[in-house]
Design brief:
Rossmann fold; single chain; Flavodoxin; FMN binding; Flavoprotein-like_sf; 6-stranded mixed sheet; alpha/beta
């Protein structure tokens, strides 16, 4: 098994929760994508503005990652689904960093259908995506076999 990293963005905690479970199972490094500027809105307006950013495929600035991803063979990317699409900060990550030659897997946390999110990310990553998985309302459903689902999925990655 090569060296791996889990690169993710989380606002509501679901994606961070799943990333932590994947880290515990794989031993991969966790790398949190951090916005250069936090969304300064609260409540519904924050969700509305974030959804608009996702809908239009915006790529807001992110801080440099805490670790150099060039040293990793496998990258697992985690995103919440916003307005049926990848999170804008994850869009920035896949646009900014070269994932060529790496094994890439995707996971999404959502309340609805993640397929468009996966299609968009696969299009941006261009051929490296080996596997996808999604979790509906992960924190609310954390006792419904999520860890077992991750263990099975990880077998297809490493």
């Amino acid at each position: 098994m090569g060296k791996g990293a889990i690169v993710y963005f989380s606002m509501g905690g679901n994606t961070e929760f799943v990333a932590g479970l994947i880290q515990r199972i794989t031993g991969f490094d966790l790398i949190n994508i951090k916005p250069m500027k936090e969304l300064r809105y609260k409540g519904f307006l924050k969700v509305f503005i974030g959804g608009k950013m996702a809908l239009f495929g915006e790529t807001p600035e992110i801080k440099d990652l805490e670790k150099d991803i060039n040293g990793y063979d496998t990258i697992i990317i985690g995103t919440p689904v916003w307005a049926g699409r990848p999170n804008p900060y994850v869009n920035t990550f896949v646009s900014k960093y070269d994932l060529k030659g790496k094994k890439v897997a995707l996971f999404a946390c959502c309340a609805g259908d993640p397929n468009k999110t996966f299609d968009i990310l696969k299009g941006k990553i261009k051929g490296n995506v080996t596997s996808t998985i999604f979790f509906k309302e992960a924190l609310k459903n954390k006792n419904l076999g999520i860890e077992e689902k991750i263990k099975e999925w990880v077998k297809s990655i490493i």
